[in-house]
Amino acid sequence: MGGGDDISRSTPIAVSSGGVDPSRDSDLARRLETRLAHTERLGNLGWARWGIGDGDADWSDQLYVIHRMDPADGPLDLERYRTIVHRDDLPVFDDAMAVLEEEDGPHEFEFRIRAGGAARLIVARAETIRDAAGSLVEVHAVLQDITDWRRTADQLAVVSQRLEEESQLTARLQDIILPVQDEPFTVPGLRVATRYDPAETAPLGGDWFQAIRMDNDEALLAVGDVAGHGLAAASAMAKLRHAITGLAFAHHEPDQILVALNRLLRRMRPDVLATAVVAHYRSTDRVLTWCHAGHPPMLLVRGDGVERLHHPGVLLGVFEDVEYTCASIRLEPDDLLLMFTDGLIERPGRDLFEGLDALSATITQTVRAAPRDRLSAIMNGLVPSNTSDDTCILVARVTPNTLEVS
């Protein structure tokens, strides 16, 4: 025991002409006894010595506390101790005693006792003392009351199971709201890959993406981020994502779509803010037209260069009446377009522009290392910089011609 070792190393032994100072030795013993008592109390454990066949027994003070007994009544010998063992646990207790008859130990076993009108769970660690003939003469044991510890552990297990079930339900709900295809898919003129990384602390988030085939030669791409996490953010996200699908098939332009989304958010969730970028792609002439609402810029990867495509616009949900304007660019075959939410670039202590610079450098290194399959290389190589925020990533490669479908 640590306290005893410290004393034995640090306490001087006073020697007089008559030998060891008995008062110093007695003081050491008292200090050791006090520390042992504190250890037993803090660990809710005590020791017992039981004689075999002679009814002899000796208990430490804490064992009386554990068994709700008066020390004046003295310890229970093994025969009487068996009478307070819970009847359902008598087979366990008897089997343990039988093992101790045959083997020296130490052995550990659990059983319940009746103490103070309530059941208490005891874990015992016991070993044996034998005479010269090998016959069992004493059992020495440390008994610990683990009732409260086990109750807490069981409660934690129940809570852990409930949290696991809730986590699984949340993941299924997130997948229903924002289904992610495992493999790249095709929309007119583009090969598209998507990914969603939930936040570590909140699996249900407000980030979303959409990639829609509008007709034979047009597609709509969008990525957005509803502020916050949890069911409220996911609910608002689902409303925006479903709305954009209907607006796209009604052949609205990106600026008109953002105006409609802003109006929807102001009417249905005036307490919520969101960002989004919406892009319309026409494969016949490879023209991309896009519009931003407070969202991080898209990145255009051409060769091994990276260009930011940004067109400022106010966040969704800030003002009642908002106008947005679009920008356009002609894409080239094998260009890559990267759309993402801020979880990919933001982290504590780093601003947006530093995050964009770091992302651009990562993309450049990635496409140089894997020039033949840049779409998969970029998608697999991007790592969110802030695991406390969810992240959506959409990467689209311009196919060499409008007939490519794989």
Automatic annotation (TrEMBL):
Instruction: List, for all copies, the residue spans of the domain called PPM-type phosphatase.
Output: 191-398
Q: Which UniProt keywords apply?
A: Hydrolase
* Record flagged with keyword Cell cycle: no
Q: The PAC domain covers which part of the protein?
A: 105-158
Q: Which InterPro entries match?
A: Bact_Sigma-Reg, PAS-assoc_C, PAS-like_dom_sf, PPM-type-like_dom_sf, PPM-type_phosphatase-like_dom
SUPFAM superfamilies reported for this sequence: PP2C-like, PYP-like sensor domain (PAS domain)
> Which GO terms label this protein's molecular function in UniProt?
phosphatase activity
Task: Write out the ranges of the annotated region (Disordered).
Answer: 1-26
Indicate what this protein is called per its UniProt record: Serine phosphatase RsbU (Regulator of sigma subunit)
